[in-house]
Design goal:
Blueprint: H1 2-50, E1 53-54, E2 62-63, H2 67-74, H3 77-110, H4 114-129, H5 132-142, H6 150-157, H7 174-184, H8 189-199, H9 203-212, H10 217-228, H11 230-246, H12 249-255, H13 268-278, H14 282-307
Antiparallel strand pairs: 1-2
Helix pairs in contact: 1-14, 3-7, 3-8, 3-11, 5-12, 7-12, 8-11, 11-14, 13-14
Length: about 300
């Protein structure tokens, strides 16, 4: 009888300890959960609600149903002709391009000695720490449309062009410049996560792989490195998706106007900002935001299917 009572007492005490630990965990999680609710859940819910209203920031919003979404798809010529193609082009090149470049650079740095790797990683990562507007100041000097622009000056000195080119107001050049500048600064936390993942791969796996028939570094990367660091690959993919679709400042900062000249660099976030903060059509801007949210969610789900575990 006594052993049975002792077991019951031990079980009760262990459950009590678990309960105490859970309460402590809830205490630590509560501030983050509260901030997440206030700054993420509430704004998203408010945006979804405003998407079905007309709101000019002065009068009380009134319900218009799906009118905003219908106008986006049927009446917004700039959205259909310029914003969607520009956003898709930008996302397809910058998203996968920046992601692949991040992984390749992380993999190459992992092959170097620690001191060299640290210096190069800091150099590669540092552009992502600089705000988009600050970067635009640098690039606006390089791509200035007069003789003082560094690129124009260089090309005129070597005889490649006879007169300056207005790089940042040209329909042909603005989008490629935006893509180049964004790729230059795309080595952010996703790059660091993949570098850390590669450096922490168990070296025994590589030795076992060479015993099983792996013959070079490329096969090592495909068959061992990538499958082993899938969580870091997923994190990098999500960060690349969010960063790509959320990008807006670079085009406006480079060109100096919203909309950008001839809508050459107009992305969906620029379109949202234009209707929300220039035309003060907050309901319409909220509807555009909901469309962007759905697109980001769909692409993120694809990334989870590609790099997530089977249990997710």
């Amino acid at each position: 009888m006594k052993p049975f009572v002792a077991r019951l007492r031990g079980l009760f005490m262990s459950k009590r300890k678990v309960s105490d630990r859970q309460r402590i965990a809830y205490v630590f999680v509560f501030p983050y959960a509260l901030m997440f609710f206030i700054f993420i859940v509430v704004p998203v819910a408010a945006a979804i609600g405003l998407a079905f209203t007309y709101f000019d920031t002065v009068r009380t919003p009134y319900f218009v149903g799906f009118e905003n979404f219908i106008n986006i798809l049927t009446s917004d010529v700039e959205f259909m002709q310029y914003v969607i193609p520009n956003t898709l082009k930008y996302a397809v090149i910058v998203g996968p391009g920046g992601y692949i470049l991040s992984f390749l650079l992380a993999w190459l740095l992992a092959q170097l000695t620690p001191k060299v790797r640290t210096v190069l990683a800091l150099i590669i990562y540092s552009p992502s720490l600089t705000a988009g507007v600050t970067m635009a100041v640098l690039w606006k000097v390089i791509f200035a449309g007069d003789e003082t622009g560094y690129l124009n000056m260089f090309l005129m000195n070597i005889g490649a062009i006879n007169e300056p080119i207005a790089w940042l107001t040209s329909k042909e050049y603005l989008m490629p410049i935006m893509i180049g500048v964004t790729l230059w600064s795309s080595m952010g936390v996703g790059f660091l996560a993949m570098l850390a993942g590669i450096l922490n791969v168990n070296q025994d796996l590589y030795e076992a792989g060479y015993i099983d028939g792996i013959k070079n570094k490329f096969q090592e990367m495909i068959y061992i490195t990538i499958p082993t660091i899938k969580p870091q690959m997923l994190f990098g993919a999500v960060m690349a998706i969010v960063g790509t679709f959320g990008a807006s400042g670079i085009g406006v900062a480079l060109s100096g106007s919203n909309p950008t000249p001839q809508y050459a660099g107009q992305l969906i976030v620029n379109h949202i900002e234009f209707f929300g903060f220039t035309k003060y059509e907050m309901g319409y801007a909220a509807a555009l935001s909901v469309i962007l949210l759905l697109v980001v969610y769909a692409v993120s789900r694809f990334a989870f299917r590609l790099f997530g575990s089977k249990d997710e």
